[in-house]
Write a structure and sequence with these properties.
By secondary structure, this protein is of the alpha+beta class. It has two domains: about 80 residues, no CATH class; about 30 residues, no CATH class. The protein contains five helices and four strands; from the N terminus they run H-H-E-H-E-H-E-E-H. About 15% of the residues are buried. The mean pLDDT is about 85.
């Protein structure tokens, strides 16, 4: 169980130190997502799992969240398993793309920019 110092450290790393006196339900959606990222840092695990962390965020907060995840990965060396529909976030922060379609791995590669655009076009959903 992480101590208070560990909790304060991870909250500082995601820029939530100023809101430690607030209840979770009083935080904005973006702050809640950052809190979720902070939770994955407790105990310094070698792998962190983020399930669609930018879902429902405005573009500015989504970019900031991506920056936080990039920085944390670079600083800790931990692997991040990211599940998302946000292809812009994927393009910014991932090294390897694994596409799961109908419950099976459909594509697995280290994409260059042109390959990423090809993947995005192949899996993009029209609404």
């Amino acid at each position: 169980m992480p101590g208070r110092v560990g909790v304060e450290r991870v909250l500082g790393r995601v820029a939530l130190s100023a809101v430690t006196d607030r209840r979770t339900n009083a935080l904005s959606g973006g702050m809640r997502r950052l809190l979720g990222v902070a939770q994955t840092m407790l105990g310094d695990p070698p792998v962190r799992v983020l399930d669609d962390p930018a879902s429902g965020l405005d573009p500015g907060m989504s970019r900031y969240l991506g920056t936080v995840v990039e920085r944390l990965t670079a600083d800790s060396g931990a692997a991040v398993l990211l599940s998302t529909h946000d292809l812009q976030l994927v393009d910014r922060i991932v090294d390897t793309v694994v596409v799961v379609a109908h419950g099976k791995v459909d594509d697995d590669r280290l994409p260059a920019w042109s390959e990423f655009q090809e993947l995005a076009g192949k899996y993009e959903t029209e609404w």
